Amino acid sequence: DAMVIQNPRYQVTQFGKPVTLSCSQTLNHNVMYWYQQKSSQAPKLLFHYYDKDFNNEADTPDNFQSRRPNTSFCFLDIRSPGLGDAAMYLCATSLQGGYEQYFGPGTRLTVT
Amino acid sequence: RKEVEQDPGPFNVPEGATVAFNCTYSNSASQSFFWYRQDCRKEPKLLMSVYSSGNEDGRFTAQLNRASQYISLLIRDSKLSDSATYLCVVNSLSGAGSYQLTFGKGTKLSVIP
Questions:
Q1: Which of A39, A100, A107 to probe the B interface (max B CBs under 10 A)?
Q2: Residue range B11-23, pLDDT digits in tens
Q3: In sequence order, what E strands does B30-81 have?
Q4: B31 closest CB neighbour out of A88, A90, A98
Q5: B1 falls in which pLDDT band (50, 70, 90)?
Q6: For a tag site, which of A9, A35, A95, B82 has the least CB within 10 Å?
């Protein structure tokens, strides 16, 4: 089945220790998104790639970076995680901008 | 005014009941609309897309009123498995010329035996 995969599902990192979350898709969608979701809040868009074009949200901290080496993979790098970065990180894809988005299962990040 | 507003609930309804959720949006140029459901500690899953005035899929009916800028979701014959948070999502063109989904905070539904 075509799908969006995220690894790991649970990640524990130390305060200030860089961490990378990964996302892969077999849907061959052009657009990939990274969201941060905290408890009882709506998902918050961090950035997205339209093919190779990177689009950063204005309020995404510089601490968050992303890479998309090819169509299938996209990575979220948190350079110096703080306690406030503990959240669920969701990857999503869509065929084109404006179409339905399909979400991966998420990576739950804990910062100690 | 918030971009996408939903009643947070919770809505506690008995099995078999009909329940309706409303959602209002502020951007009159919004292009398309979606309802997602999200179970506790899981990812959002697409429930319905709403491109024209409405859409129906089994027990679920979504309606769009562009003039009043609201979308509704009706669930008939509620099942225990319908218990979840329902997210209203609005798609708009951003100032940068790319599409952006804006999520409501969700409405929590609990279906009670």
A1: A100
A2: 999 999 999 999 9
A3: 32-38, 44-50, 54-57, 60-65, 70-75
A4: A98
A5: low
A6: A9
